[in-house]
Design goal:
Blueprint lengths: L2 E9 L16 H13 L6 E2 L8 E11 L8 H8 L4 E9 L11 E9 L20 H8 L4 E4 L14 E4 L3 E4 L3 E8 L6 H14 L4 H10 L15 E7 L8
Parallel strand pairs: 3-10
Antiparallel strand pairs: 1-3, 1-4, 2-3, 5-9, 5-10, 6-7, 8-9
Helix pairs in contact: 1-2, 3-4
Length: about 250
């Protein structure tokens, strides 16, 4: 009898072409499915909460698979971690109902973005850096205000005809400053491709150009993926922080 298993995963994305399996590039999904095949003796397909791009990291990613073996879910993290490189760790595994989907049951996702104030070679894989930026915390917070709420985010994402619904609901963006970097926390019910990186890059661009918050509101209302003021921040600074599911599933 098949059981649906949900994995909680963290990974350093700097050595991967992204989550999704690709024929001629290294991916997180392919590494995990290889480990699953060795553990279970069968090919198993993972479905994740949402794909991450090349160089993007995850502190808490979720993915499910259907399993017909006898191994208890509690034993799987240790068994899989033995088969994986240190770039990927399985944090937890639990059985979930057959109708559960790591992707479609998710109702909220959160990301953080670390934007460095200067380029440091030893941190280049884990922070983003944008040249010739003039950033100020209060101005960044002010610029982010019009972005909260429910909007068509076409201006801040790559066009994709396979995803006609471009509406996402964003919580107020939180920005804090440390000695080395600016940290952005961005939470929404869903995200479009490249959306978080384009939000951060555009906030930095607008801050440097000393644009008014109304400019960000105008960019949103135009719903134009070719908006020239929208620029993506580098992938290295982006981290998937977590995914929330309905309480009925008791996801750890």
């Amino acid at each position: 009898m098949s059981r649906r298993i949900l994995l909680k995963i963290c990974y350093d994305g700097s050595g991967f072409s992204g989550w999704q399996s690709q024929k001629h590039a290294r991916s997180v999904q392919a590494e995990l499915e290889k480990a699953l095949r060795l553990m279970a003796g069968q090919d198993l397909k993972l479905v994740c909460s949402g794909r991450t791009d090349a160089g993007v990291h995850a502190e808490s990613q979720y993915a499910h698979f259907d399993f017909t073996g006898r191994m208890a879910s509690e034993r799987m993290p240790k068994a899989l971690n033995r088969l994986l490189s240190s770039e990927i760790r399985i944090l937890d595994a639990q059985e979930v109902p057959a109708e559960f989907s790591a992707r479609y049951a998710a109702w909220q996702r959160s990301y953080k973005y670390l934007l460095a104030k200067k380029l440091v070679p030893f941190r280049r894989l884990y922070t983003g850096f944008m040249i010739n930026q003039n950033l100020e915390l209060g101005k960044l917070r002010e610029l982010a205000l019009p972005l909260s709420g429910k909007h068509d985010w076409s201006s801040f994402a790559q066009p994709n005809p396979e995803i006609p619904n471009r509406v996402c609901e964003l919580e107020p963006i939180r920005v804090r400053e440390t000695e080395e970097q600016f940290e952005f926390l961005i939470v929404a019910d869903r995200f479009l491709h490249n959306m978080v990186r384009r939000i951060v890059g555009t906030l930095a661009n607008a801050c440097t150009k000393d644009l008014a918050p109304e400019t960000l509101a105008s960019i949103l209302s135009e719903a134009d993926p070719k908006q020239t003021l929208v620029v993506p921040a580098p992938a290295a600074g982006l981290y998937l922080l977590g995914v929330r599911y309905p309480e009925q599933y008791n996801i750890r």
